[in-house]
Amino acid sequence: MKLSTKVKLTIRGYRLYSELFPWALTLTVIQSVMTAIQPFLNIFLSARIIDALVMGEPLQRVMMLVIAIVSANCFVKLTEHACTHAIAVKYVHWRNFSFPQLAKCQETDYEKLENAETHQKIAHLQRVINSTGMGLPRLCWAFQSVIQAVCSLLLSIFLMSGAFISVEGTGVWRVLGSPWLSVCIIGIVLAKCVLDIWWVNHYDAKGYQELGGYTEQNRVGDHYYQNFMTYHAGKDMKLYQMQKILKQEMAQIQMGFRRTTKACAHWSLRKELLCKTTDVLLSAVFYSYVAVKALFGAFGVGSIVQYAGALTQFGAAASLCFTGFASLSANARALSDLFEFLDTPNEMYRGSLSTEKRADRNYTIEFQDVSFRYPGTDTWVLRHVSLQFRIGSRLAIVGENGSGKSTLIKLLCRLYDPTEGRILLNGIDIRKYDYAQYQALFSVVFQDYRLFSLPLGENVAASRHYDAVRVTVALQDAGFGERLAQMPQGLSTYLYRDFDESGVELSGGEAQKIAIARALYKDAPFLILDEPTAALDPVAEAEIYSQLNAIVDDRTAVYISHRLSSCRFCDQIAVFDHGKLVEFGTHEELVSDQTSKYFALWNAQAQYYEKEGQ
Ligand code: ADP
């Protein structure tokens, strides 16, 4: 990667970092300057105290110097700690490093979210942050290192400059006092710095490569941890005795993890060994140089402490400075991966037309010769579908499993766009409307809806703040009223026990009613229920349907159901078969045609309705 690209990525990274953690960089500058100053304060003032003692200066002056060293240390340490504390507690939380990815997922096309490649990219970015601290987290400590190192470099050059002053002399002194020896020492320091850069760059890049190889392993591992290590999965695991298979899977994943960690640790160890060993050697050279020069009387006792200390600090600072820059350079790859993900364009066209919030909810939706194939597949899931929804009507969509009913809803809500044909809202292609405004028109209960381990009220309102009266009414309308009365803390009762001991477990039917309540609370003009009563018993189903007319009110409702008895009350019924709309009409019209698909389905299920007493 070109240096200019690395610089651009790093600058962009810092911009994003400042947006995530305002003030954190300013506090880091103060903290780093304080960390840099402290050793020099001690070196300089200790040298002055030694000089004062050797020169026999009055005790008062010595005491003043002692007080100065103690107060300066207190000030520097307190300021440094205050900044560290503020950065850690108030500003920088590890989790927040994932916020940009989270935000991107929210706005990414649904089609991309369903894609395994996207899952892998997200898992890779998470793994990079958690395992190596590369990407945004590394910017934080690299910034600290660079600021601290630059300050230390300037201060050490200032404090040690006296050690390199050449002195005329003969014999051994000719060598010790020669400017060439000074140049030689400086050369050794610089050589060590160059080696440090190379090692850090080289070994960090190796570690990063190892990590990339195991992304898939880690993704599978995370999936197991998140989905199988919960008590929700406990029942199935016990009854199907899945412990053994899980144990084998986990062992395999553990092996993958171990290989990754071992490989990363291997490169990191090599880097540390080389850097630290040469650090020690460099210190030995510095100390010998200053000590021998002092032995020959080139400077006083206090100055030995100052030069030796400053020289050591210079070595450490130069190494830290280059390590910081080298680490930023190696980090550019992780930033490039992050920004590549954040910059992935949404391919779905998003228009800007307003959906005109109509008080009369007078919206019409029309499918015009719509055909659809899922991206990356060859099979037509929907073919030449033309359909119009009457406002305020109840439309039922029926058909066997896999006939394309749920896909039709995904197209209607613009989770996908048709491969051919178009969908119109009030005569205008839905692609031309503002995406968020368009989706606000639909309340949907999907087959695979999700409730969250949050309080009941927040689940229904999908928000921290909610209107308790409206939430209660929505729950009652969805048939959850009786259960709500039994909830220990009413709307504040947590669903599930992930975060709260007193959280409640829900039956499938109860959960579905809450999901329906959430759709009702949103109060959108279109209410879509995809198999809304699949988990309900026949009594609960009858109860919900008897209330549906009142609940739906002036909304346009679309029901997908495999129980045809549920559809009888609908104004229109659309029958799907292998992705095609094969019949359309009222229950009476369709059932009276004995050759119809609907008639066949109806007859096949009739015996169950009789058994259920419907
Ligand atoms: P229904 O709701 O009538 O049961 P769906 O609309 O869910 O049917 O599915 C229709 C067909 O589309 C099925 O063959 C299903 O396997 C396929 N399908 C559904 N989702 C996807 C997807 N994300 N990618 C590829 N194929 C899919």
Structure description:
With 614 residues, this protein is an alpha/beta fold. 62% of the residues lie in helices and 10% in strands. It has 22 helices and 10 strands. The protein has a 6-stranded mixed β-sheet, with helices on both faces. Strands 2-1-4-5 form a 4-stranded antiparallel β-sheet, with helices on one face. The radius of gyration is 35 Å and the shape is elongated. 32% of the residues are buried. Adenosine-5'-diphosphate is lined by residues 114, 374, 377, 381, 399, 401-407. Adenosine-5'-diphosphate binds next to helix 14.
Strand content: 5-15%
Describe the strand arrangement of the main beta sheet, using strand numbers: 6-7-8-3-9-10
> Per the principal axes of the C-alpha atoms, what is the gross shape?
elongated
Q: How many E-type strands?
A: 10
Spatial separation of the terminal alpha carbons: 71 Å
Q: What bound compounds does this protein have?
A: adenosine-5'-diphosphate
Question: What class would the helix/strand composition place it in?
Answer: alpha/beta
Helix content: 55-70%
Number of helical stretches of at least 4 residues: 22
